[in-house]
């Protein structure tokens, strides 16, 4: 019986975006559609911690 939980995943493709809050350029692991706000790591963390 061989090891079945292999980690052969490709690196996730990142897409450039502009944070809706601070307007800094950032990268996200999905292609932004333009219909929802995008947040950089810092702004996302602030929003998450404030309960929004």
Key descriptive features of the protein:
globular, 17% helix, alpha+beta, 1 helix, 52 residues
Molecular structure report:
This protein is of the alpha+beta class. The chain has 1 helix and 2 strands, in the order E-E-H. It has one helix at residues 41-49; strands spanning 15-18, 25-28. It has a two-stranded antiparallel ribbon with strand order 1-2. The model has no long low-confidence stretch (mean pLDDT 86).
The best one-word shape is: globular
The mean pLDDT is 86
Low-confidence stretches: none
H and E order: EEH
* End-to-end separation: 48 Å
Count of distinct strands: 2
What is the alpha-carbon Rg in Å?
16 Å
Helicity range of the residues? 10-25%
Question: Roughly what fraction of the amino acids lie in strands?
Answer: 15-25%
Query: How would you characterize the largest beta sheet?
Result: 2 strands, antiparallel
Strand order of the largest sheet: 1-2
What's the topology here?
Blueprint: E1 15-18, E2 25-28, H1 41-49
Antiparallel strand pairs: 1-2
Offer a concise description of the structure:
By secondary structure, the chain is α+β, with helices and mostly antiparallel strands. The protein is built from 1 helix and 2 strands, in the order E-E-H.
